Amino acid sequence: METPTPDPYDLLGVGIGPFNLSLAALAERVDGLRTLFCEARPEFRWHPGMLVDGARMQVPFLADLVSLVDPTSPWSFLNYLREQDRLFPFYFAERFQLPRREYDHYCRWAAERLTACRFGTEVTALHWSDGLFRAELTDTATGERSTALARNVVLGVGTRPVLPEAFAALEGHPLVWHSADYLERRAALDAARDITVVGSGQSGAEVFLDLLRRHEQDGTRLRWLTRTRALAPMEYSKLGLEHFTPDYTRYFHGLPADARDRLVAAQWQLHKAASAETLAEIHDHLYERTIGRPIDSVAVEITPGTAVVEAQAGPCGGLELHCRHVDSAVEHVLRTDAVVLATGYRAARPAALEPLAALIDWDGSGRYRVGLDHRVATLPELTGGLYVQNAELHTHGVGAPDLGLGAHRAAVILNAVAGRTVHRLPGRTAWTGFAPPGSAPHAPAAGAGAAAPTTAGFPRPQEWTRAAAASR
Question: Which of 45, 167, 285, 351 is deepest in the core (most CB within 10 A)?
Answer without folding.
Answer: 167
